[in-house]
Design brief:
With about 500 residues, this protein is α/β, with parallel strands linked by helices. The protein contains 11 helices and 27 strands. It binds alpha-L-arabinofuranose.
Amino acid sequence: MKAEIRVNRHFTVGQIDRRIYGSFIEHLGRAVYGGIYEPGHTTADDQGFRRDVLELVKKLQIPIVRYPGGNFVSGYNWEDGTGDKAKRPRKMELAWQVVETNQVGIDEFQEWAKRAGAQVMMAVNLGTRGPEEARNCLEYCNSTLDTHYANLRRQNGFPEPFDIKVWCLGNEMDGPWQIGSKTAEEYGRVAAETAKIMKWVDPSIELVACGSSNYDMLTFGDWELTVLDHTYDYVDYLSLHQYYGNPEDDTLEFLCKSDDMDAFIRSVAAICDAVKAKKHSDKQLNLSFDEWNVWFHSQDADAKMEKWQVAPPQLEDVYTFEDALLVGSMLMTLQNHCDRVKIACLAQLVNVIAPIMTENGGSAWVQTIFYPFLYASTYGRGSTLRSIVSCDSFTAGKYRDAAYLVSSAVYNEETQEIVIFAVNRSLTEDMELDIVPENFGRCRVLEQVELYHEDLKAVNRKDQEAVSPRSVPVGEGKITLKKHSWNMIRLKTGM
Ligand code: AHR
């Protein structure tokens, strides 16, 4: 099979905001306890953070990490995670039906994020709480005044503000599973009022309003319209969340789900623009795709989980090679929408539907999905080029005319490189790829990295890395994308 990608130096989608390579740590399962934090671990640092995990996180160069939830945040009292650890309450955590010890809270997490080289993206509880607690939390984190909550932070050992710039106004408030879920009208009003006063406390922050919990919600569309009708003038981003699975074991259809993500982004951008038009506003609302991933492998095990344990192994999906192909394709979708999607968070980061896994008291290793993320985050910096792609197409389930080639093209002005990310979705045929860069001078392929395994269900486990990238020798000839493979091709321009 043959395919072509044509790009032109003058035709760009926009500059990639590095925050699209963000991730997420929720107080859920072993993400925090046994994941990023384990004081007795042989690699624990002075604050009890696992250094082996930090090293893997740092490789991913994650610019921003959402915290503390997720569903967890809708029943959370942020004060429980501050001050003297010995006095912190053990609580019934209703979202995931576990016991929360509160040994980690914002006091510790902001320090972990610093060590990981990331900003914190903080969520406030609009489930059981409201504007009052949100503004207190913001004052605690960011204020430099001589006022109660800023002084409390100082008493707790933090003279300098945490300076958290991005705040989520609740989480998935449309979902019936959410603690304190709301109608669009109820949420829109409380989100607008919370946003208004949070910006009075700190005008430098950016706010994210909750969009629908996923594209399939029955209230999708109406929810966005109503919420934005109330919040448009006060917020900076609308959130999107989406997880995909392959429970029917139909790989071709599963691999098409990045096309669904593409349609979802286009729809939400269109809704934002409709509200903008209706309000005669000059402001463009951008998107925060702050939960995305594959999630389905662990669902049966989780349904059988005994309740009220401390940090049990919840949502521990073991990712296959085909999951990595979809995650790689979803990253390309995010890059191709960089004009609207300014923040995105791979959900999540450690142990919970995560690229990084650990054993309590043992080692840490990386899952298959770690690799496409690593390369996108490392090399997908610069501006996305508008690609004209020619290739064959196929039909799988509801997906008609799906292209065999999924791709994105990023131009990095600093390194003068074009970086192509590409997945060949054919399960049977290799693809001969022609890359045609226009107005870039003479170009030379520097490197091709490939993620491939004959077995679509191959997985990585502790001490057994079945799926890892390899360098493909580059010559003068055409580029070959193996059947069902993920690839990154770097071209030096202006030779
Ligand atoms: O990431 C796991 C969960 O998925 C989050 O807590 C919630 O926001 C979503 O439903």
